[in-house]
């Protein structure tokens, strides 16, 4: 068991609690950087896909896991990020400007949409945001002169300082680009969590009444959460566009929204790790199923709805047996080893919570 | 002593029910002022009026010359009014330390971009907040619980953490909604000393709602007795306790 002997307030402020965890993450990043020399192009593409989903997951995690606002409309923001980035590039903007601009635009639009939406709570907010997902499809079709509607768009070549990056011809460069964005987003997320705004997010999630009594402006905080969440999601959407190569109005359907929400629930709500764990499940599940089918010998018979069915079952099992998601399970296993042999079964039992009043609403 | 909080002819109606009826009282700077009364007398409603969760139907509320009715709930905290809740409203999925740091939110002077980049200024501010919070932790003896999650803490400790969160905001006026409810005899005794120290050492004015008459008469300078949202009696604890109208409200006519 590691004991943190704290000698200054910096101990609680800095990114890593001790040298050991710094080392673990440093090794992880080194492995991630050298991955293109180890993996073949197919699996490198799959890992890239995991990272892109993880960025999108971080975006939704900030809103749902951190601030407690469920959204089923994030596919719309993926679409907005994707279309705006590629349209900016078609106007001749370089990638390094178009990409952040797409993120900022998505964030601003997200904030504007949030202003009326944050008056809603819980399930009502989820329903309102479903409308967004559905509307996005129609808006893309209606705005055909800009978006090319049903026929869709093709992602152009990315050029950064003369280096050409493309998903198919240079999968390694594209992977590094995605990795860089992932690390930056994770770092920004982590920084928010250890600063006043991140704590205000958690405060709004756990008790709006006392958050406002402590001087937290509820509407402004929720709008900020929406804005940052949508900006990160927009970046993920742009990367998804480059990853897919071609996309149209059906690429970012409501199913993507639902998958994204399921992903962060399975991964573990309210943790950065959860977004990554969930992304691994979402991105690898289809491959895993088809490989299993080959192994079992299902032949070329397609089973309709298999993926969705398995995914749904996993979600149900998690909600029943491990509401904290994969991250929660991971923590339990870690604590079990750290405390060995002193871990007790009831250590993780949730204590019954005391009466909470909602009547001030 | 100057008047800090002034409530003039405040009235609040929920449909046909008059929760607060033409209530007028004022709290002086540096005193401990208690509100007592039977259940449903409107004590907590008065608190919710001051923290701007409810809009009064009529009347005025001023704090140190500022009209509170012009402000939203979060802007009330900016003036230096902090409160606790009757049913403990802590942030359950955060540690004690994080809860107390949320109390510092009104002193936040960094913006979103700075926080995302975690600039040196943010780090400096974090340390400053932490120092302020540590003072509160020392004051309330919360050291063993610093990194514990609220969800796993016993009731009595949560009550103290909530007091700590209010103190961490560095208030001028502290609203305590039943600070001793659900506490053991010893914990109530601790609470009494803390309230005394809060007033004497920190110079914070305290307005509290409390049922425990032992605590009320022990710490408060003045007591207001409420019944059906209206003032029944006001004065020193002894005066209020021997007031025939108060006895009648609590025990019924003829008991005196």
Largest sheet of chain A: 2 strands, antiparallel
* Cα gyration radius of chain A (Å): 21 Å
DSSP strand content of chain B: 15-25%
What value does the average pLDDT of chain A take?
88
In one word, what is the shape of chain A? globular
Helix content of chain A: 55-70%
What Rg of chain B do the Cα atoms give? 19 Å
CATH architecture of the largest domain in chain B: 3-Layer(aba) Sandwich
Can you tell me the residue ranges of chain B where pLDDT is under 50 for at least 5 consecutive residues? none
End-to-end distance of chain B, in Å? 35 Å
Report the portion of residues of chain A in β strands: under 5%
The overall number of domains of chain B is 2
The CATH first-level class of chain A comes to Mainly Alpha
CATH superfamily of the largest domain in chain B: P-loop containing nucleotide triphosphate hydrolases
Decide which structural class fits the backbone of chain A: mainly alpha
| Overall mean confidence score, pLDDT of chain B | 91
Question: Secondary-structure map with pairings?
Answer:
The complex is a heterodimer of chains A (361) and B (256).
Chain A: H1 10-13, H2 19-38, H3 41-66, H4 74-90, H5 95-117, H6 122-142, H7 144-147, E1 153-154, E2 158-160, E3 163-165, H8 171-193, H9 196-206, H10 208-213, H11 218-244, E4 246-247, H12 254-267, H13 272-296, H14 306-321, H15 325-339
Antiparallel strand pairs in A: 1-4, 2-3
Helix pairs in contact in A: 2-8, 3-8, 3-11, 3-12, 3-13, 4-5, 4-6, 4-11, 5-11, 8-11, 9-11, 12-13, 12-15
Chain B: E1 3-14, E2 17-28, E3 32-36, H1 43-50, E4 58-63, E5 66-67, H2 73-78, E6 81-83, H3 96-102, H4 112-117, H5 120-140, H6 155-168, E7 173-177, H7 185-200, E8 205-209, H8 213-219, E9 222-227, E10 230-235, H9 237-241, H10 244-251
Parallel strand pairs in B: 3-8, 3-9, 6-7, 7-8
Antiparallel strand pairs in B: 1-2, 1-4, 4-5, 9-10
Helix pairs in contact in B: 3-6, 5-6
